[in-house]
Amino acid sequence: MSSMVEYAGPRAAFATLGGSPTWGLGDRFHELAATRGHTRLGVHRPATPYGLGPQVEHYRAPGGREFLRIPTYGQVVDEDPVLHASEWKTFWILWKAGVRVLLVGGTSGSCDWRRTAADEDAVRPGDFVLPQSYLTRDTMPTGLPGTELEFCLPRQVAIMDDPFCPPLAETLRAGAGRVADFKFRRIHGPEAGVVLNRWLAGNGFESLATCRVLEATGRQIGMPVITGDCVSPVLARVCGMHLAYYHVVANWGTGLAPEDPTIVLNRLYMETLPAVAAALELAFLDEASEPTACRCRELLRSRPPEYARALSPRATK
Ligand SMILES: [Zn+2]
């Protein structure tokens, strides 16, 4: 790791990490964007303190706003994201680029306990979800090693109410209702209390046992659980970003039995979803305004200076 690295990529206040909803486009997101009036100004591969970063695409939207796109959560082909510090590299780039609004999309399974055909309110394949909260099963959330955000807990703490910026969820809800030639079966807003069991870059679906646990947990707390990819909401908050997250439910949790004859996974990912999700993301990046009526900034709480002084001082060289 080298803390001497200077960021040499493009800067913008808005960015997207794309994600599984647009996977089916492969490396052709920019072609679809062009048909909607978005110009790709450049493609960069910035160095980061943790090694060579992911690809950073720089766009100008038809309304004139510039934004960044890092494909698929910052993952690099054939590299284990954890082993190669993918999330650190990605967030270091977004932080240095001055990003304040970050759009992330996910797909995957529903572990809603209400599974009979009569359960109209259930979170089912084909639905669009704006989760209210999330569960985390990964290691303790950290900052950005080698920077002043490496371990900032004594100086500031992220309160994780509203991990997904509520006003931006409303923007996404409006956008999802407006997509041309496509209708989500149902749109579940934050008031539905859906919980995202956050998982990034696993090589498999959740096991049947995990899904049953999530199903039972959801029933117990009265909050249906979905599983899917999303970057760390804590890291986004620590880096001062509003996180806009949307999720398209592709299947029931195990991924083994879609149970819905109208939806076949690869057809959904390859044919239906990419153009719909790309249109939604591009419209958001062009039109969303930076929210002022949310608590994303306020929920990163400063702490008394005594807390930092209660730790051992930095080593002197
Ligand atoms: Zn916000």
Describe what this molecule looks like in 3D.
The protein is α/β, with parallel strands linked by helices. The chain contains seven helices and 15 strands. It has helices spanning 29-35, 86-96, 166-176, 208-221, 233-238, 265-287, 305-309; strands spanning 14-16, 39-44, 47-48, 51-52, 56-60, 66-69, 101-110, 128-129, 133-136, 156-158, 187-188, 195-198, 225-228, 242-252, 300-302. The strands form four sheets. An eight-stranded mixed sheet has the order 2-5-6-1-7-14-8-11. Strand 5 and strand 6 form a beta hairpin. The longest helix has 23 residues, at 265-287. It is globular, with a radius of gyration of 19 Å. It starts with 13 loop residues before the first strand and ends in an 8-residue tail after the last helix. The model has no long low-confidence stretch (mean pLDDT 89). The structure holds zinc ion (ZN).
Q: Mind sketching the topology for me?
A:
Layout: E1 14-16, H1 29-35, E2 39-44, E3 47-48, E4 51-52, E5 56-60, E6 66-69, H2 86-96, E7 101-110, E8 128-129, E9 133-136, E10 156-158, H3 166-176, E11 187-188, E12 195-198, H4 208-221, E13 225-228, H5 233-238, E14 242-252, H6 265-287, E15 300-302, H7 305-309
Parallel strand pairs: 1-6, 1-7, 7-14, 8-11, 9-12, 12-13
Antiparallel strand pairs: 2-5, 3-4, 5-6, 8-14, 10-15
The chain binds zinc ion.
The site of zinc ion has 5 residues, from loops.
